[in-house]
TrEMBL record:
Pfam families for the chain: adh_short_C2 (PF13561)
Keyword Cell cycle: no
Protein name as it appears in the record: Classical SDR family protein
InterPro entries in UniProt: NAD(P)-bd_dom_sf (IPR036291), Sc_DH/Rdtase_CS (IPR020904), SDR_fam (IPR002347)
Organism: Candidatus Planktophila lacus
Keyword line: Oxidoreductase
One example GO MF annotation: oxidoreductase activity
PANTHER family: OXIDOREDUCTASE, SHORT-CHAIN DEHYDROGENASE/REDUCTASE FAMILY (AFU_ORTHOLOGUE AFUA_5G02870) (PTHR43639), SHORT-CHAIN DEHYDROGENASE_REDUCTASE FAMILY PROTEIN (PTHR43639:SF1)
Family to which this protein belongs: Belongs to the short-chain dehydrogenases/reductases (SDR) family.
Length: 234
């Protein structure tokens, strides 16, 4: 599919996967609106960096409006931003839990609702394997992603014909991960049939398909991209 001339809003754009999204969609000819809270992205043609704190109530609404003002129109949205704090479910404070739910569920919902009124064709929510089987310390994060998966389904009905999809990611490798987290990488490889982690380039590739006309009959679905973890125990 030729994406040239389209526009996209990407949240969490200064993170590892977010930067890969920005780079690739600029290559494809998109006008890219990149939301950042912390971190920086270097300026390039057709890139609009929007500083917006998604922890603030209704920030998702204003973010979509700002993206429309910058790009003139908005065709696609990727809800990629996430709070991934490790929280002990027995000790986490109410404010810590509310912050995680705010960024991982409430803000995406605001963005989806506003996108549906703004001519957006597809919203893609980035979920996690932790939504199905969270590791110790990730229980609340997993609950927030499970809620996002349900939101994907319900929003697809509420906002048709805009399509709402999800992508449930497993471990995505980055430079130095084998040295920084050897026990986790080994456990991941042992638990997954394909016995490896994915690259950001692979995540971007599957995202291109999900947004494309080749996938135009799908909405409400969350796709597993996890090396087969769903068939195993983690």
């Amino acid at each position: 599919m030729n994406f040239a001339g389209n526009s996209i809003l990407i949240t969490g754009a200064s993170g590892f996967i977010g930067r890969s999204y920005v780079d690739r969609f600029l290559e494809l000819g998109f006008t890219v609106c990149a939301q950042v809270n912390t971190g920086e992205i270097h300026a390039r043609p057709n890139l609009h960096v929007i500083a917006e704190d998604l922890s603030v109530t209704k920030s998702g609404n204003s973010l979509v409006q700002e993206a429309l003002a910058r790009a003139g129109k908005l065709d696609y949205v990727i809800n990629n931003a996430a709070n991934q704090a490790i929280l002990d479910p027995a000790a986490a404070s109410r404010s810590e839990i509310e912050l995680m739910m705010r960024i991982n569920v409430d803000a995406p919902k605001e963005i989806i609702d506003e996108a549906a009124k703004s001519g957006v064709q597809v919203v893609l929510n980035i979920s996690s394997v932790e939504a199905l089987n969270p590791r110790a310390g990730h229980e609340i994060y997993g609950a927030s992603k499970a809620a996002l998966d349900v939101l994907t389904r319900s929003a697809s009905r509420a906002h048709a014909p805009m399509r709402v999809l999800g992508l449930r990611l497993g471990l995505i490798g980055r430079d130095g991960i084998d040295q920084a987290w050897p026990e986790g990488v080994a456990a991941w490889k042992a638990a997954t049939p394909l016995a490896r982690y994915a690259t950001a380039i692979e995540v971007v590739g599957v995202t291109e398909f999900l947004l494309s006309d080749a996938n135009a009959w799908a909405t409400g679905s969350t796709y597993d991209f996890d090396g087969g973890l769903g068939t195993s125990s983690w």
